[in-house]
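Follow-up to my post from last week.
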Amino acid sequence: MGFQDAKNMKFKVKLLGIEAGGKPIIVMDDENASLLGIHSSDRVEIAYKKENIIAIVNVAGDFPKKTLGIYEEVRTRLKVQSGEEVNVRPAERPESLRYIRDKIFGQRLQGPEIKMIVMDVVERHLSDVELASFVTALSIRGTNMDEAEALSRAMVETGQTLDFGKGPILDKHSIGGVPGDKATLLVVPIVSAAGFTIPKTSSRAITSPAGTADRIEVLCNVDLALEEIRAVVEKTNACLAWGGALDLAPADDLFIQVEYPLSIDPLLLPSIMSKKKAIGADYVVIDIPVGRGAKIQTIEDSQALARDFIELGRRLGMQVHCAVTFGEQPIGYAIGPALEAREALSTLMGEGPVDLIDKATSLAGILFEMMGVNSGKQKANELLRSGKAEKKLREIIAAQGGDPNIKPDDIKTGDKTAKIVSEEDGSVQLINNRAIAQIAREAGAPKDKAAGVLLRRKIGDEVAKGDALFEIYAKSKQKLDAAISLAESLKPMGTAQRFGEKMLMDRIPTTILHEKPFVLER
Amino acid sequence: MGFQDAKNMKFKVKLLGIEAGGKPIIVMDDENASLLGIHSSDRVEIAYKKENIIAIVNVAGDFPKKTLGIYEEVRTRLKVQSGEEVNVRPAERPESLRYIRDKIFGQRLQGPEIKMIVMDVVERHLSDVELASFVTALSIRGTNMDEAEALSRAMVETGQTLDFGKGPILDKHSIGGVPGDKATLLVVPIVSAAGFTIPKTSSRAITSPAGTADRIEVLCNVDLALEEIRAVVEKTNACLAWGGALDLAPADDLFIQVEYPLSIDPLLLPSIMSKKKAIGADYVVIDIPVGRGAKIQTIEDSQALARDFIELGRRLGMQVHCAVTFGEQPIGYAIGPALEAREALSTLMGEGPVDLIDKATSLAGILFEMMGVNSGKQKANELLRSGKAEKKLREIIAAQGGDPNIKPDDIKTGDKTAKIVSEEDGSVQLINNRAIAQIAREAGAPKDKAAGVLLRRKIGDEVAKGDALFEIYAKSKQKLDAAISLAESLKPMGTAQRFGEKMLMDRIPTTILHEKPFVLER
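User reply:
Got it. Predicted complex:
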């Protein structure tokens, strides 16, 4: 197909044979770019046979004339071969760019404007520069509830949605930030054991040592297609699936790609709520861990965020309750996919840490009470203690292709281990969440599922000089040594002779060995 | 050279053979990226023999394992061949990223922080995402005078500077936005004819139909190296050179690359003033065109901007005066490189439009008065009318390799022409600067030097039905037709029976055929 326009030009295709990270980018020589009136980052429309796409131009000084360098993303959409001829013309700037500028200049955006931005994000019509500018403007100008609602709706509408044909649908989400939080592995079986439907999708770790999907993958397959999820939910009332490949609110994954290098997270609310809406949730409990070292530091901030979640849920047709939870230390003792899966399984089998049990039953209990059950937490506890939740998890594992008879000891953890011991008698006064997470990552988690950290003490526990504070698990000696040396420099557990007596928490200036990492987990 | 660190990996080089627009980008497969703990947009340090550079990673799903895809920018700096082995390890995030985040969160930046950002911009350690975020944050948060000063100094210090070994150095700059502004071609010879030194560097058009460098290039060579500039200035007390290849304040060119797609210009002041400082200017006159269709719309805004220029100049050790000029219509009659060069030459030879003469002599006159001359404008007029300025321009043309005897008629303009005529009797009430600029660009300017627009009437001129309002010049029938059809839809000149009697200027909603273009010229 050609264009009926004056300003178009024929180019010969040169396949570059590499990906551009999902972006539809083409390379063009500067001379012909100039003839077309095209600068780097401008958009062109490319026509080949019946296909017609918008791509972003990378102008190169030293590129063969009248040749169009084509990355894999463009090749697969145009279905074009090397040497073939395509028609190229300048494309209009997307209308959404005007709304991004409006946001830069402080205007509130309307629903249709936000929809157009999100559509152009998903269709890849916006460059990294434009996307980064939008996310930065959102971060500085903020979003009001109308904008958050419009963003959520647009993110749902530009992706897949699920309808299980039976209701109500329950869901649970944590805003994250606390290592070792395997509560989902307990909440889902407890809730579904009570007969409710909870089709849980989770993410993998981005900056943490384990995401829920990484933990579950130790027990069974998590990479399920939509039809497989439907079948598992049909059979068990639940699922524990990875959400990444389901195309639920796909705009979010593209926003994350620019939020991550900038370490800003202005889309937290619409990002989470759009994924809940896309899966068809009716009742949602959201866990907001609070404290030094968590994402939210104060009770006041957590309450403000909770009110926003509840209001945004109401507008999107979901009933939301929030749980503000203690986030000053890891949940349970295990950090790292395999260690956490083992701890979760043991807990469902009757032997688990008090904090994990309390958190999981509290969250499940809130969902039960939202469904009209009295004493929700008590009911959750009964389902846990009676073994019904364990039985349900094994059903889910079987439905997702795992071994339903798996025992905690069957789960392999790294065989290179080291103990980090206390240098004094006393008790543990604080645990640095982020330092623990970094050490577990240095040991190889989440890529090495068997790697991680196992705490031997938690806050308030007594310890004698030479007693283990925590253990590091790794697959190789090299990674173990790297994690040990990081542990020695970060000193993630602070001890005092008596709890609360050591007042100096940090000294500035000090040798900052590792910058505070940005936590981007949803 | 290798690294003494645990976390590094050997890769085999694969040369991609294409440029990445100046950015040091490498491509890596997702599996090894993950092992290195690298996400897309993260930075790595690459070591090969004695070379060692920082590059930005593009993670590709389908790229050969343990292979490093290398763009031309990285190849030329590493001096590496295909198949050779390089060492790769994660690089620390640049410290400047923290200051970019500080700016996002509304902090004022200190001098050393700004210096670090600008250094990382020039060294290409920041990705497009980070650069776009910084420029967006500057646009929203604004810069105070301390920051503008620090930005200017950092931009000077990260580039070349010129020292002519004789003083004082005079300079002239327009913030741009008005088509047909060839005043520089008169101001420079007038000022140097008086014995003052004015080594003028100019830019090419980015979004306009002609930059000063494009106009001069019709008469002589503008692409001079630093040594050539020195020789021309030695001989003539002046030069008319293109600044683009001189590496004066190179950060600015990189900022422009993200400002252009976003249509924001938060670095206007430091950008202009750093270039003046780099060339060693002591006395500077800055032209601020004002009016509907110019960059600055009101006298109040122009005064505020002028005060900032003066104060920033003072801090940088330059004396600055500003001229607020009438910017509601093009300067003179000619728009487009060749048409404008011809008009400027004719004007120096004694036959030129009143507004161009008035503007050029006013600006030169201000510089004269800054140097202690009484009645500066009168002196400028004398130098113009006596032919001394013409003689000086011909000296400069000769020194820059052009024909010193060139006559206006020697300058070729496009031989495909069309007249756009008035549809009624009356007088011209307004001229839309941006529409005129777009029509000239559509006709081929600035790439086709001979293309452009020649006005036949200006504001207030009487016109009869069928009289020419303006002519379009193009090199090809195709471009001429495109420009005619754009002219017909934009109607860039408004006529009324009597000036001021036609009150309706625009109707909304109306068919918006062409969006208002963003003017980015410095």
